[in-house]
Amino acid sequence: MANIKSDIEITNKVYIETYGCQMNFSDTEIVSSILINSGFSIINTPDNADTILLNTCSVRDNAERKIHERLIHLKRYKKQNKNLVVGILGCMAERLRKNLLEEKQIVDLVVGPDEFRKVPQLIDDARTGTRGIAVMLSRVETYDDIEPLRTSGVFAWLSIMRGCDNFCSYCVVPYTRGRERSRSLESVVKEVENLRDKGFKEITLLGQNVNSYKDRQTGEDFADLLAASAKAAPKIRFRYMTSHPVDMSDKLIETMAEYDNICKYIHLPVQSGSNRILDLMLRGYTVEHYLGHINKIKKLMPGCSLSTDIIAGFPTETEEDHKATLRVIEEVGYDGAFMFKYSPREHTKAFSMADDVPDREKTRRLNEIIELQHKISRELNNKETGNFHTIVAESPSKKNPEEWMGRTDTNKVVVFPVSNGIAEGDIFNVKILGSTSATLFGEIIS
Ligand code: 5AD
Ligand code: SF4
To answer: Which end of the chain is more exposed for a tag (fewer CB within 10 A), N or C?
Structure first.
């Protein structure tokens, strides 16, 4: 029988596991900060934790399946420590709500993305036997006043807005993260200055659709925010995610071109290359409109790298639609892509459409898309041989401890050998010697 430590000392140690998008990683830093301010401490392994929180993703069914499986694993910890508190945070908490408490005995608390301030109280309640739920969505919560607990002193996520008003027909995000709201430009720039003063080297501005950022008081838009940030910290490299093609403006492209410290990399999800499917997805643009942005980007920022998201097998997608997607991928020549099989999500508009592309066919189309994208990435990376890039050292390479990895301005991963005395955040000029479809290999020049 498992060793039951019923008299275990409660030490307020919380372990948080994060799944899904960058926004979730940024949210975990906010939750951690809230917990620390209430007297908890954050630890890096579940072994001695009094509380285990899973910050979850609902965007596709397989993301949720992972959490269900993880909960089965966590039963072992609960057997060892009957006082252990287990909580589900984030999108899955918001989507499944009290069903999670009803169906999963192991779950003690369920907290949606706009109610993180209640996590400390709900942990305390759970310890006295009251299982709790907080899943109200807010039109104003931005956690503006909370300084996220960042573990790196070099790379920072900075969330500039929350929620999404786009309601793309396949997407559950507007239902789990609520309506779009932006922080004020002033508060974001203050946070940038704070990070600058602490010695950070790279900041990624985050939002579900950063192009519709708006400071409600002053009317300033995302291009204004990016310019103000770049000006406030000229030595910091700025990235951002994610763009929506509808709201992408010439002004933003011109602003990116103007500042050397705004990275020349744009993630611009196209989702499909067929206008009929884009219409059904409620994306609000045509392929031609999308390609107009791409041409402008290529003209104003030659060498700017591009990535995208693609969904294979949306309801009614024909072979012809699929071929159109392959053509767009070819025409743009993306440096990279995130590619998915369509996954029906309850409550979304597309959920009422029949999921009529058979799974085998979705897989075949997805594999064709992946194969084409890998070929393009390989060719583009091949052309990098002999080029020089400035990179910020990120971490030791996973495969070989005598190598480190960093990223180019264009967001390409470079692996390079190191002799001694290298630290996260060191900046190098590297020469590219070779590549695969996913990685560049280089040597330090200076
Ligand atoms: N099925 C498959 N992919 C999806 N995405 C969002 N919702 C779904 C879904 N229901 C993808 C989109 C989006 C990315 C974050 O996830 O491509 O841009
Ligand atoms: Fe989802 Fe569309 Fe909003 Fe992106 S823009 S989060 S795909 S609804």
So the answer is: N
Given the structure tokens 């996220």, which residue do they identify? 148
Q: Tell me, in angstroms, the distance from the centre of ligand 1 to residue 310's CA.
A: 8
Q: What is the pTM of this model?
A: 0.94
Closest C-alpha to 142, from 187, 209, 78: 187
pLDDT tens column, 37-93: 999 999 999 999 999 999 999 999 999 999 999 999 999 999 999 899 999 999 999
Pocket test for ligand 1, best of 65, 170, 173, 266 (most atoms within 8 A of CB): 170
Q: Please give the Cα distance from 20 to 37 (Å, whole number).
A: 25
Percent of the chain with pLDDT over 90: 93
Flag whether pLDDT at 269 surpasses 90.
yes
Residue in this structure with the two tokens 């409620």, named with its chain if needed:
282
CATH of 265-382, one of 3.30.750.200, 1.10.3720.10, 3.40.50.720, 3.10.450.50: 3.30.750.200
**Cα-to-centroid distance, 372 and ligand 2 (Å):** 25
pLDDT reported for residue 119: 98
Class of domain 388-445: mainly beta
Q: Given a cut of 80, is residue 288 above it in pLDDT?
A: yes
> Is ligand 1 within 6 A of the CB of residue 345?
yes
Of 394, 414, 379, 376, the residue nearest 152 (C-alpha): 394
For the domain made up of 13-134, give the CATH fold.
Rossmann fold (3.40.50)
Give 185 Cα–ligand 1 centroid separation in angstroms: 29
